[in-house]
Amino acid sequence: VQLVQSGGGLVQPGTSLRLSCAASGFTFSSSAMTWARQVPGKRLEWVSSIYSDGSTYYTDSVKGRFTISRDNARKTVILQMNSLKPEDTGVYYCNLGNYWGQGTQVTVPF
Description:
Elements: E1 2-7, E2 9-10, E3 17-24, E4 33-38, E5 44-50, E6 56-58, E7 66-71, E8 76-81, E9 90-96, E10 99-100, E11 104-107
């Protein structure tokens, strides 16, 4: 299993970022995919999940601002992050069970 992330960076509050996670080594279309984040000084936090049927779930703090989606043909899961806030700063990880992407830094300064 490989999860290779792209995207992220330093952006101003109120702007957007798009994170991508390219997957390989398993049956992507039948797998639930998750994004989590490590905020400085806090525990790893679940952000969003998308299931094989397309159903999506979000932690309360990102509802209405983040959108998770999947492209089964490209074996990719996307996290579109809009209206970013300083509290969204952290390292974001793509996750499948015990497998994790390399992490992507998102920084939204005050």
